[in-house]
Amino acid sequence: MTLNANLVEITPQEFDVELDLRYVSGNNFTGRPVYRRGACYLNLEAADNLRRAVELAAAIGLRIKIFDAFRPTEAVQMLWDHTPNPDFLSHPSSGSPHSRGAAIDLTLMDGSGHELEMGTGFDAMTPSSFHGALDISAEAQQNRAILLGLMTAAGWDFYRNEWWHYQLFKPRRYPTLSDKAAGSRMMGDTGQSNAG
C-alpha cells in the first residue's frame, strides 16, 4: 500500500522482514505505547534500499527485524518530551529522519529467527550502543559490523550513536510528515496517542 505522501507500507509478505514495532507496545524506553496502530512505512527510496538490504542479508542466511521506520512528527515530539536526549533523539524543531520516512531501526536474525547478539538492546541510550563500542563482546562487535556492511552496501547511511539506526543520505531532501499529512493513522483519530 502506498500512502498519499509516497510512503510505502512495509509488510512481512511484501518485504520478507519480521516486524517488532516497539512503539505500539510498552516495550520501549517510554514504558508505554506511543502509536495506537501498528504499521510500518518508508518513503519510496528507503523502501528500495530496504529490499536490497533484505536480499544481501538473505544471501548469507540472515533476515531483518524492524523495530521502527516512519515516525509521525507527533511521535517525535512525544519521545522528546519524555526523554530530551539529543545524543539519541532528534529535536522536534529540526525534524527526525524518521518523520521523513527516510530512517529505519532494525536488527538481524539468524535462520532460526533468533536475533543476533548486538551488545545492547534497541533504544539503549548508552555509549555501549555506539558504533565502534569496545565494551561489548567480540560476537556483538562482529554482528554489528555485518549489519553495518549490509546496510551500507544497500545504500544506507548510519548514525554513529545507534547500532540499530540507518537512514538515507541527505534525508532533509524529504519533508517531515505528521500522522494526518502522511495518512498513516498511527496516532489515532485525534492525532494523539494513549501514551499520556
UniProtKB/TrEMBL annotation:
Keyword Ion transport included in the entry's annotation: no
Residue numbers binding Zn(2+): H98, D105, H165
Reaction(s) the record says it catalyses: D-alanyl-D-alanine + H2O = 2 D-alanine
Active-site feature positions: E162 (proton donor/acceptor)
Matching Gene3D superfamilies: 3.30.1380.10
Residue(s) at site: Transition state stabilizer: R71
A GO term, aspect molecular function: D-Ala-D-Ala dipeptidase activity
Alphabetical keyword list: Cell wall biogenesis/degradation, Dipeptidase, Hydrolase, Metal-binding, Metalloprotease, Protease, Zinc
GO biological process, one term: cell wall organization
EC numbers for this chain: 3.4.13.22
Function comment: Catalyzes hydrolysis of the D-alanyl-D-alanine dipeptide.
Protein's UniProt name: D-alanyl-D-alanine dipeptidase
Organism of origin: Sneathiella chungangensis
